[in-house]
Amino acid sequence: MTADLSALTGGADAHGAAPGLLTAAADTPSLVQSIDWLAVAPPTLTALAALIVLVADLFLPAHRKRLLGLVALTAPAVALALLIPLRAGDRSTFCVTTGTQACSYTADHFALVIQALVLGGAFLAVLLSLDTTGRLPAGEYWFLILASAAGAALLPAARDLATLVVALEVASLPAFALVGIVRGDRRSSEAALKFFLSSVVATAVMLLGVSFVYASTGTLHLTEIAARLDDVAPALDTLVKAGVALTLVGFAFKTAAAPFHFWVPDTYVGAPLPIAAYLSVVGKTVGFSGLILVAVVAFPAYADVWGPALAVLAALTMTVGNVAALRQNATRARSAVRLLAWSSVAQAGYLLVPVAAAAYSSDQQIGSTVAYALMYAVVNLGAFAVAALVARTHPGNRVADYRGLYATRPLVALALGFFLLCLAGLPPGVIGLFAKVAVFSAAVDAGLGWLAVVMAVNVVIALYYYLRWTALLFRDPETTEPAVKTAAPTPCRSRAVTPLTTAIVLTAAAGILLSGAPQLVLRFAAVNLF
Question: Which pLDDT belongs to residue 40?
Fold first, then answer.
C-alpha cells in the first residue's frame, strides 16, 4: 500500500520530505491530478441524482412525490447518453504519476458496454417501479436504487482491487434495503436478511482473498498484480493461490453461482418485483464484470487455478438451476417469480462458461459472456415486466395464473411467449439462440468438450419448463383446474399500468430488433481486456 500511495503522490525525497511540499524541484511530479470528468460522468451523475432525490424528498409535499420518480427515470437515461462521446477510445483517470501507468479508472470498451447494460437495466427497473412507490417511502426508494446503480456503473471501470471492492459494496448495500423496504411484510424482511447475511459472508471472504493478494504482490492495481504474479516468490505461492481462490469465491456469491446461490429464490420472491428484476440483471452483471476483471486481468498467471474451478461451477450452477426450475414448474402452486429465480441461476451457469474458457484459450472468450448478458438482460426484464402486470390482478403470481393469458391480454401473452423462447434459445427468439451458440462455441474452442456437453443437456432440460409455461399462455382459460385458487381480480388503473406497458413494449421491441440483426449485439459485445 505504501508503495502504491507513494507512487500516486509522487514519492518522497532522500530526506523524507514530500516533493511539492518542502521542495520545488523542476522534475518533481505534481501532487494534483487532473480528473477526466467526462470519463467518470455516468456513475457520478447517477450518484448526484440519488443525493438530489433524497434531499428533495424532505421538501416536496406528498402530492408532488411523483416528481421524484421522474427524476430517478431521467438520471440513468442521461447517464446512458453520456456514454456516447466515450465510445471513440480508452480514457483513464486516477493514475499513478511515477513509474508505471497503472490507473484506477478506465473507460474502455468493456466498461462502456457493461455500463450501458447496467444503466439500461436501472432505467427499466425505475420504469417498473413508477406504479409501486405509492405504498413505499418514495424518497428512500429512489435514492437507494440510484445509489446502487451508481456503484454498479463504477465497477466495470475499476482497475484496482480497492475501487473494485468499494464499487461492489456501493452497488450491494442499497440492494439489501430495497429488498426489505416493504414495511410490515415478513417475507420481505426475511428475504432482506438472507440476502444481507450471504453478501456479508461473501464480502468477508473476498476481502480476505484481496489481503492475501496484496500481501504477496504489494500492489492493488490489476495490471500490476498480473505482472508481479508472473514472478512471485516460491515461498508466497500458497498464499497467492489462497488469495486468488478466496477472491473468486467472494465474486461467485455475487453471481449466484452454485453452491452459493441459496439466497436467490427467497430474495426474488420477497423483494418488490421491480427490485427482483433489478437484481436478476444489474446485480448479476455487477458480479460477473467483477469476476471477469479479477480473473482475466489480474490473475492470468493462475489460470490453472481458477479455470477448472469456474468450469465446474458453471456445470454445477446450470444443472442446479434447471433441475430446481423443473420442480417449480411441475408444482402448480409455485410462484412464477420463484421459477424465474431458478431460471436466473441456470442462466448464471451459462454466463460462467466463457469466463472459464478464457483460462484455456489464448483467444479471449469474454465477448461471449457480454453478448449473453445483453440478451439475458433484455428478455429477463421483459419477463419480469409481464409478471408485474399479471401480479396486479393475481397477487399470488403463480404459474397457473398465466393460463389463458392470450384470451384476455393477447399482446402481453405474445410478448411473454417471445421472452421465454429467447431464454430457451428457440425461434423466433433468434437472439437467444445466437447467444447460446456463442457460449457453446467458446467452450468448444477452449477444449472444454465435457462442459459443452453439460450445457447442451441443460439447454434441453430448460426447454421443458420454458415451453410448458409458453403453452400455458394459449390454453383455454375456462379449463383451469379447480385445485388452483387465485385471489379475485382487482381493478387496475390505466395510469398505473402505463409504465409496465411501456417497459414491455421497449423490451419486446429490443428483443425483436436484436433477433432480426443478432450481429449487432455480437459486435457491440466484442471486448478485449488487454
Answer: 92
